Amino acid sequence: MLALPVVAAVPATADESPAPADLFARADQPTPAPSTSSTPGTSDVPDVPTIPNQAVPLDDFYTPPTPLPDGADGEIVRWREEPRQLTARNYLVMYHSTDATGQDIPVTGRVLVPNTPWRGEGPRPIVSVASGTRGVGDTCAPSRWLDYERPFIEPMLLAGWAVVVTDYEGLGTPGGHTYVVGQSEGRTVIDIVRAATNLPATGLEAGGKVAFSGYSQGGGGAMWAGELQPEYAPELDLVGVAAGGVPADLTEVADGLDGKVGFGFLLFAAYGLDAAYPELDLESYLNERGRETYEREKDACVEATLPHAFQDIGMFTTTNPLRSPQWQARLDENRLGANPPDVPIRLFHGTLDEIVAPGQARTLRDEYCAAGAEVQWEWHLGEHVSTMVTGAPGVIAFLDRRFEDRPFLGHC
What we know:
Elements: H1 4-8, E1 25-26, E2 76-85, E3 88-98, E4 104-114, E5 126-130, H2 150-158, E6 162-166, H3 182-198, E7 209-215, H4 217-232, E8 237-244, H5 250-257, H6 263-276, H7 288-297, H8 325-333, E9 345-350, H9 358-370, E10 375-380, H10 384-403
Helix pairs in contact: 3-4
């Protein structure tokens, strides 16, 4: 089951031919208006689904202009329309966001607009799906993969909801990927919603209902988007957050991975924190084996975690960076629970989760409940990957009720 993400998605390779630079549009070029010759929310392209058979080639799209032009969070830097994916029109976007230290950054991602019309009230809703672990290298970006989470996205599109999927900071775009750093991930999850409505070609309107959803790394990203939204993006009509397998407390998650089957994810997390906060200086803690591993795997995808099963931090470091005051301070900044979203929340977790410690997820639930948040909580009898599968129907049902303004039953 741990290998599911590996066999379900194949990244592009560097020898694929680059696409011509004129296949993408800069934000300062005129943007074509959505077609008026068809029903809103549909495309005038013949309704013949295209199933992608390879990842997006490595091309100039992912290299931002230098210098990066000024822009507000969610403002489009460039975009292009891609071949349709199953039931949806498909747009690749680069947009402005803000990193964990408050700096303007370019981020890429995908906007999927279904052919299924939205039959509810108001503009078509948008679900910002935060991806689970893809890796830390540019070729691992969700927009470049055959997406192993796509089966869970397709029901959203069939319901008439638009879906946006960020690549996060440093996946696809230059710089290291800030893996599991919520202060960065949450903002990128939010800002791709703004980007989708800032692109007229999508036909999506601002002011419609919005939800965040994700599992594992994505569960953290979605939950961080929920905690940051009231201050960071108060204009969004956020109606709910669905998050499973949430790494809420990175220190406790790290303790549960050290020396265990999922140790490779702990390596990725160390790389991610170091990318977000360069003053942490991860390399100064590494021994020779650690330096060799870092150089070999700083651009690796998720399959690189498998050979590290049952290794431990001491095999790669001279001293444990996670115990230093500097690292602890940054870990504390990225601990969920301090600012519960003021919208209904659905949390779920596997009782046998071997990757993301169940105890810290239960603590997050308890903290949210104590603060008065509306929380649904569900245990699943399973480990990490199987819970992603068994939890998916409940996520769809939760989102459907939120977009239809139906009653919410909390479990606090």
